[in-house]
Amino acid sequence: MEIILYLSVALVAIAFLVxxxxxxxxxxxLQGTLSSVSSTLIGLEKQLDxxxxxxxxxxxxxxxxxxxxxxxxxxxxxxxxxxxxVGTTVNKFNGTLKNLTQSFDxxxxxxxxxxxxxxxxxxxxxxxxxxxxxxxxEKNQGSAEEIRRVRSR
Length: 153
What we know:
By secondary structure, the protein is an all-alpha fold. The protein is built from two helices and no strands.
């Protein structure tokens, strides 16, 4: 019976040894898997750092762009206000010009007869001038003919 006891203990020891060997292989395989996972996580951490840096740069550029757009929007607002003021000025000028034209039309209508008389006197004056010029030319031609006659003698 003792032998059975020794054999049982030896069998238990062998079974424990086989269990320990398989457990060691499993743990070694698990260690390889965990090493692979660890290296993958290190790579992911590096990539995440790169993405974080790029995201930070992109956010800074976006903020700078938003500030630039805000500044340009304010400048554009002042330009729009200036253009609006120019439009208002042009409208006022047009209104003033219209009033002046209407006033001029009214004065022309009121002074139509006087203007007609001035035009008639102007025509008379031009006719007198033309006649005076024609007489002067006749006189000059006559003088030129006398000078020719005197020279030809």
